[in-house]
Input
Amino acid sequence: VKDEEARPCRSVYVHVPFCAGFCDYCAFYSEIARPDWVERYVSALLRELDAVSKYIIPQTLFFGGGTPTLLELKHWEKILDAFHTCGRPPAWEWTVEGNPATLTHEKAHLLKAAGINRFSLGIQSLDDDLLARLGRAHSRQQALDSYDLLRTTGFDNLNVDLMFAIPTQSLAAWRHTLNSALDLQSEHLSCYEVTYEEDTPLYAQLQANRFSVDDDLVCDMYDLLLDHSQQAGLLQYEVSNFARNTTPQTGEFPSCACQHNINYWRGGDYIGLGPSASSYRNGVRSRNWANLDRYCQCLEHDQSPAEDTEQLGPRARAGELAAFGLRLQAGWPFALFQTITGFDLRHDWAPEIDSLLKLGYAEVTPERLRLTRAGLRYADWVAEQFLRPESPPA
Ligand code: SF4
Output
């Protein structure tokens, strides 16, 4: 992309590729945090930030992983300093993901003082046996203590991450974790069904018939999630995401919805920094090497750390965006979809929309298409219906 063609990008993601151990379900790229690797990563990340800083005016900044809270204070000081001195105003939503086993009083205070105003805590479960089943490094008590620490440090916009349909988890056990988590009164809740990614221990156990998946139980757990989160004042705004209104809702989303993720679902540009991070800018998608050594080598030699880039055609991109945006409870306003993609959702996807209406999975108003509660339950299947090959089949 030539400099003169580049618009400033308003969403930045930073991947911190280190974990204390590996969870049994996880397919994200991460490494065990050896001190020399962490130092090398931080230097490479600062080089990458320097190279893109002229293209970014971040309104949302998200540090994910891996386990960002595994970084030591001295690393955080360097990284935060670099973001503060890259000549840009502070992001209005600045999130750090953390794992209860690695959050300390000092780190929480440093992050708060540096302007991080949203914290996402990976609790996953409040049942010690199920945490062990997932291979998580923390206990129920550590999760509750970390949440208290964040509150006493002054964070007033907290997300709690939970998982359901964990192997051997009963409906009663899920109800207990969910209700305990809702009692915390976080501003945001992200809840994901366990998925089985190839090359993970959990996938191998499923293949070896060490447990089975009960689809009816999974549906009951999801229904429980929808009902109890609503009763607790958390409004569903995406298939797996719920947020509170702490100020009067002015737009389509609750006031504490994650703006960084809404930008993905609504097709905005973003820049990803760090190994394995993806970017989408000016119609080009790229992905950095999911290999720490390779990533660092590139930046140490003033080369791009991108492993591959891809220019999606307008039709394929529109299909992809239709699929992403329908995950939102607000669905797609027809006018907005046309402005962003140049395609008319009502016209270009008419047969698919008709089928969804017949199944009771969607509703259409004069302004928008949105999925119903039943449709959101099958959002992954719905998404596949909207994807388009670049050229129509001959
Ligand atoms: S802490 Fe997060 S990134 Fe690391 S292995 Fe577990 S789920 Fe994956």
In short: Residues 35-52 form the longest helix (18 residues).
